[in-house]
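Our consortium's second objective concerns turning raw sequence data into structural hypotheses that experimental partners can test. To show how far this objective has progressed, the report includes one record in full. It was chosen at random from the queue rather than selected for favorable results. The single chain below, 440 residues long, was entered without modification.
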Amino acid sequence: MSLKTFKRGVHPFGGKDYAKDCPIVPLEPEAEMVFPMNQNLGAPSKPVVEKGDRVLKGMLIAEAGGFIGAPIFSSVSGTVKAVEPRLVINGSKVESIVIENDGLDEPAPGFGEERKLEDMSKDDIVNAIRNAGIVGLGGAGFPTAVKLTPKNADDIDYLIINGAECEPYLTSDYRLMLEKPEEIIMGIKAMLKLLPNAKAVIGIEANKPEAIKTMSELARIDDRIDVCTLKTKYPQGGERQLIYAVTRRRINSKMLPADKGCVVDNVGTVFAIYEAVYKSMPLIHNILTVTGEAVNSPANFDVPLGVSHSYMLEKAGGAKEETVKFISGGPMMGFALGSLDVPVVKTSSSILGYLHDEVADAKETNCIHCGRCVRACPEFLVPQLMGKAMKRQDVEEFAKLGGMECIECGSCAYGCPAKIPLTQMFKLGKIKVREMNAKK
């Protein structure tokens, strides 16, 4: 059987063995829970509670800040301790709601009430997803209700479910497909009701045979759902690469997937849709992996939003004394953590612990024009020339070379023998291009 894939890309060390066989374990909430207001792409959410207010589990504590926004709900019952700036993953301080957990887990009215899909209209489904505060859990946090209501809904012929989990070490999506496959299929059926002419395709990399088997057995029951086996390669789970692998359609930075008849969501988001539509549950938890050579007991946790990364690491047995680095997210696109005292948010996916910091230890040398970065780039760019333009601070040249098409996957930097920090340079370059265009 030929495996679907895209052109170029890289093959980093997988690291999946640390946690792939660890079942998902529910994590109890902490005494103090922190909910930052910037948990989605778009405008930050706006607090609707004040210090001293009593809140319940599943209760609205912040409303969407705009159309491209999402509400936030408390994952515990308790009292609002403060509304103040708190440290988040990227090292900045963000307005946050701090809740003192009373340990009672008292639910908000209607929380957990069961509903039947056949009794729900399209509007009912969309409102359930929107009102649950669901955003894309596999990427930047784009509000899911907006994604599932494109202007050309009748023209969407592919609903692509991202089960690739191509980032090294991460295994939370894999465990979700093994442990909650029926719920994922039910979530897909709710999404298909919004896209009447679409067929759902679940894309899973070949290094997850058990997930492929499990999801394929359930998908056979519905002729609108199929499983596509993908080649194990990074960044196979990137939105553009996944669309190309499944449909052979290409998109660029000026397009949305809907422009090519596609809607893409990852399996974690689909599970959240299941809970919102069928169980009347807002997004108040997520499945995360705590793993890496530095973690004493790698694990996959079902984590209430608002707990700290330090608490989550503690529940995984802590880290070895010689640990030198922690990353939130995958090693290719994640953030190095300056502090573990930051809360888990909707888009959190993991904590990775390392005994060696290859990035810090790397010594940059001159480009030797080997072309490895060109052969690795899944967007067919020439990182070598883009990097030289950025070193000259020639933002216009960077833009002309297609810099805005960079998806910041890190493939070029991974393959560079000169250890040039290409990805970081391109992230800065894209910011500079946006500033330049804004001035024009």
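The partners drew two points from this record. The radius of gyration is 21 Å. The longest strand covers residues 78-87. Both points have been shared with the crystallography group to help prioritize constructs.
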